[in-house]
Amino acid sequence: MGFFDGIHIGHRAVIDSAVEWAKAHGAAPVVFTFRLPAENKMKGKRLLSTEDKHALIASLGVEHYLCPDFEEIKAMTPEQFVLGIIRDCNARALFCGENFTFGARAAGTPELLRQLCAPLGVEVVVLPMAQFEEKPVSSTRIRTALEGGDIPAANAMLGMPYAIRFTVHHGAGLGRTLGVPTINQIYPQGFQLPRYGIYITRTKIREQLVSFGHWSRHPAHRQQRREQGDLRDLHSGLYRRPLRHRPGGGIPRLPQPQQKVRHAG
């Protein structure tokens, strides 16, 4: 149980433990999470879309995915949460991280969860928080790493390469006139952006190495968070399609294209 933004190594420890327990006890592994509008700041800026989060969770062996809207559950007391959701789902065991909270105003703690579940015969397993560089891993730390351009640290905490999957849009066409056509992807509102700069990336299209940045000199793009990728021969036919980028090491915060070329070379 949790919000699981990013599906980082701490989240995976909880989910993996639940999946293994289910296999050993002939049960079906289920993840309980909830949907928040992207503009809702309660859990910080998003690392993953709801769709990508669902796909990643499914890839970990989870068979069922419960994801109500936050508005439907936010007023529940911890007791209502347990009786109305856990009991009605016929849960046999619950897995969560040691920082898990539930119920209105986050009043429920793992210890309270144990107390409420004991009369129902439901086992509660609380996993310690995963560590990176001797500090707990959290979605907040991953956002901070991205803001600072520290992609290796973000990747280490995520347990996989940081990636984006957004629709390709038409740009100003400047790159094509220079013989280096680019693709343009706009981060949706409410998503966490990496630090301004150039990043080496891989895409899911033939895993071709591409250049990456989210800068634009076009006046119309001044208020948008846009990234551009050089795909060369794969450029045609990509517009209006989602494209997945995986940034690697980068050269952050180089304000002018001329400077970027010199430093990158």
Q: Residue share in helices?
A: 25-40%
Gap from first CA to last CA: 47 Å
- The unreliable regions are 213-224, 250-265
| Secondary-structure element series | HEHEHHEHEEEHHEHEEEEEH
Structural class: alpha+beta
Main beta-sheet strand count, sense and barrel state: 6 strands, antiparallel, barrel
Number of E strands = 12
Mean pLDDT: 78
The whole-angstrom Rg is 21 Å
Structure, described:
This protein is of the alpha+beta class. The protein contains 9 helices and 12 strands. The radius of gyration is 21 Å and the shape is elongated. Residues 213-224 and 250-265 have low confidence and may be disordered.
Summary, kept brief:
This protein has 265 residues and is of the alpha+beta class. It has 9 helices and 12 strands.
List keywords for this structure.
disordered C terminus, 29% helix, 6-stranded antiparallel barrel, 265 residues
